[in-house]
Amino acid sequence: VRSGDRAAACRDLYNALEAPVLPKYPLLQLFQDFFRDQGALGVLMSGSGSSSFAITSDGALWTWGYNIDGQ
To answer: In the predicted model, is pLDDT for residue 36 greater than 70?
Structure first.
């Protein structure tokens, strides 16, 4: 991150909760796939899945929130 190499930093993004959450809530996976299709360098679910974010080559940050409990 300090070097400014966003692509290298994004290769190390990891959230262990994605493995059980994304199959259960496929809409989250669709949004992550959309971010990647738009050229995001890195995409990750934050926390327990209340939102996902994407990091782009120009430093923009895309976010999307979803309340999986419908509240």
So the answer is: yes
